[in-house]
Write a structure and sequence with these properties.
The protein is an all-alpha fold and 117 residues long. It has one domain. It is built from six helices and no strands. The longest helix is centred in the C-terminal third of the chain and has 29 residues. Keywords: Membrane, Transmembrane, Transmembrane helix. InterPro entries: SpoVA. Pfam families: SpoVAC_SpoVAEB (PF03862). This is SpoVA/SpoVAEb family sporulation membrane protein.
Length: 117
């Protein structure tokens, strides 16, 4: 399982690095494109196969966040339109909350400073 996760996660990162090296796209645009790719692939029912095969290798990269949002919306849509909108938020809430809480804790522990050129 670790090898599959490493290979799939590495392949996703390799694609991103090739895009960075050979295009003039900014990092922000690449992040958005990868997240949208996760959304589109899950909407087509394809990303789930990658998650089942590679586990964290497919869910940890930013495309996995898009997959998570789309999966929550799809599951919520089965209950109605309101749940289709809130399903994405509910699916991603634990990860986003953890990121905010840990960022706050580390901000308290470490002193931040501007990068000097």
């Amino acid at each position: 399982m670790f090898v599959k996760a490493f290979l799939v996660g590495g392949a996703i990162c390799l694609i991103a690095q090739v895009i960075i090296n050979f295009t003039k796209l900014t990092a922000g645009k690449i992040l958005v494109y990868f997240m949208l790719a996760g959304v589109v692939l899950q909407a087509l029912g394809l990303y789930q196969y990658l998650v089942d095969f590679a586990g964290a290798g497919a869910t940890v990269p930013i495309s996995g966040f898009g997959y998570l949002l789309a999966n929550g919306a799809i599951r919520g849509a089965q209950k109605g339109l309101f749940y289709a909108v809130t399903g994405s938020l509910a699916a991603a809430s634990a990860g986003v909350t953890a990121a905010v809480v840990f960022a706050f804790i580390f901000a308290l522990i470490f002193k931040s400073h501007s990068k000097k050129n």
